[in-house]
């Protein structure tokens, strides 16, 4: 039996800026998977209906972006452990059993740090800046890399304490740190705040950086972010979140298709086109 291509989409509001269709089209061509991947703009009050319509039209899976990651979590009929820990879903898979909700953001970050930047997590001191949705999504995958210590610092300290406490019962190596008292160096500093959107930097002491530090901003752009500039001034190696974007897409592709695309060429093409 020959059918049309399998259908996938990224659903968000707004959606025009999303690079996911380009990335998945490249993955599909590279791995010879017969699929199409579209952009779907859902109304702000119409996410579940948009998903249902897409499923009825034969949709096999979807990525979910702002502002619907929490609604996607609620809509899923099954959740992976990493989606449960994240409290948010960026990947939906539709099958006879219902709707699987997964979250590939954190493994995307970890893959980019370990494989692409070549920086190990095991035994290292890691500082995570921020305690919102983006930070929460990466805590479990970071802990899975077995760092010596994962410290969470946030402008609103109570949110950092709350986030660390969610994991502290199972992991002895996580704690909240106060920006004011954080004066020791870290091997890896991840900026998961939205400060870069406002060209701002979280109030972190420069003492956390030295020449052995990888400073990672989950945001990306044509120019280094203010956080990356600050870290570089204090000797750190810096990296933006473009690799995370490509790696989370590759993990979603694997969840849907069972095939792992090669991310390096796609990353280079996206970087060149920024
Ligand atoms: P997201 O889903 O992108 O994480 P969010 O849940 O609104 O968005 O969280 C934004 C995060 O960025 C929070 O950790 C926020 O700190 P507060 O909890 O104190 O609000 C952080 N943040 C945003 N702007 C910031 C800034 N200018 N300096 C430092 N932290 C900032």
Give a written overview of the molecule.
The structure is a single chain. This protein has 274 residues and is of the alpha/beta class. It folds into two domains: 6-103 and 243-273, Leucine Dehydrogenase, chain A, domain 1 (Rossmann fold); 106-240, NAD(P)-binding Rossmann-like Domain (Rossmann fold), CATH 3.40.50. Helix content is 38%, strand content 20%. It contains ten helices and twelve strands. The strands form two sheets. Strands 2-1-3-5-6-4 form a six-stranded mixed beta sheet, sandwiched between helices. The longest helix is centred in the last third of the chain and has 16 residues, at 242-257. The relative contact order is 0.13.
Radius of gyration: 19 Å
User: What is the CATH-assigned architecture of the largest domain?
Assistant: 3-Layer(aba) Sandwich
Poorly predicted sequence stretches spanning 5 or more consecutive residues: none
Q: What fold name goes in the CATH topology slot of the largest domain? A: Rossmann fold
Strand portion, in percent?
Answer: 15-25%
Helix content: 25-40%
On the 0 to 100 scale, the average pLDDT is 97
What's the story with the biggest beta sheet? Answer: 6 strands, mixed
CATH superfamily of the largest domain: NAD(P)-binding Rossmann-like Domain
Strand order of the largest sheet: 2-1-3-5-6-4
Number of distinct helices: 10
Q: State the domain count.
A: 2
Shape descriptor: globular
């Amino acid at each position: 039996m020959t059918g049309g291509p399998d259908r996938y989409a990224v659903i968000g509001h707004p959606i025009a800026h999303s690079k996911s269709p380009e990335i998945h089209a490249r993955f599909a061509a590279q791995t010879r998977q017969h699929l199409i991947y579209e952009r779907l703009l859902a109304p702000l009050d119409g996410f579940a209906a948009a998903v249902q319509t897409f499923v009825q039209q034969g949709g096999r899976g979807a990525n979910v972006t702002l502002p619907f990651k929490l609604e996607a979590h609620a809509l899923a009929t099954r959740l992976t452990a990493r989606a449960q820990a994240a409290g948010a879903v960026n990947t939906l898979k539709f099958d006879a059993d219902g709707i699987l909700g997964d979250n590939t953001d954190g493994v995307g970050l970890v893959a980019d740090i370990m494989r692409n930047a070549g920086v190990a997590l095991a035994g290292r001191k890691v500082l995570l800046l921020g305690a919102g949705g983006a930070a929460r999504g990466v805590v479990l995958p970071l802990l899975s890399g077995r760092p010596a210590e994962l410290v969470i610092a946030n402008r609103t300290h109570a949110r950092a304490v709350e986030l660390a406490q969610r994991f502290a019962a199972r992991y002895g190596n996580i704690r909240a740190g106060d920006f004011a008292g954080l004066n020791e160096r870290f091997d890896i500093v991840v900026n998961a705040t939205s400060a870069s959107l406002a060209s701002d930097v979280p109030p972190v002491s420069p003492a956390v950086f030295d020449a052995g530090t990888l400073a990672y901003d989950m945001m990306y752009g044509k120019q280094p972010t203010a956080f990356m500039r600050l870290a570089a001034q204090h000797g750190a190696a810096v990296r933006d979140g473009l690799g995370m974007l490509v790696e989370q897409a590759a993990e979603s592709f694997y969840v849907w298709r069972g095939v792992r695309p090669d991310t390096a060429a796609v990353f280079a093409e996206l970087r060149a086109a920024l």
